[in-house]
Write a structure and sequence with these properties.
The chain has 157 residues and is of the alpha+beta class. It contains five helices and seven strands. The structure holds cytidine-5'-diphosphate (CDP) and zinc ion (ZN). The site of cytidine-5'-diphosphate has 7 residues, from strand 6.
Amino acid sequence: MNRIGIGYDIHRLVEGRRLVIGGVAIPYEKGLLGHSDADVLLHAISDAVLGALAHGDIGVYFPPDDDRYKDMASPVILRKALSIAADEGYRLINIDSVVIAQQPKLSHYYAQIIESIAGMTGLHSSSIGVKAKTNEGLDAVGKGEAIAAYAVVLMNQ
Ligand code: CDP
Ligand code: ZN
């Protein structure tokens, strides 16, 4: 059986933090605020995986107010979501995603981000879509105050 899932996330951009998207450190004057690496793209993908199985979201498994999970690295969260899926016999077929960032320009990093996600998921790079959009200067994302991400996944049992 096939199942699709959708995930969304947003984090504030602040000074004094590293910017990590899809497990790749991207040179920029600001980074995303949140526990651990605040990797907005991996969080959206992890939620999409759990969503495909109707398992809620990553906050159910890793409550942000629970100190045990406070600084859990995002790749660990994604792997945990995939292992929950594997326990039910589901494997990932493909991922598509959109990162909404006014800055920095991410297209130079697509290949690196895709390789990084391929390494975490076991997917071939041809099954991972990564795209970026600005928000045309509109709203908080458009003003460069935050970066958001959407992801969809297809899982098969
Ligand atoms: O042209 P359109 O309004 O559809 O899109 P845009 O938001 O102006 O972005 C144009 C292109 O810039 C995108 O298709 C991406 O290839 C690239 N882009 C990027 O590399 N990094 C971003 N943070 C945003 C957009
Ligand atoms: Zn997040």
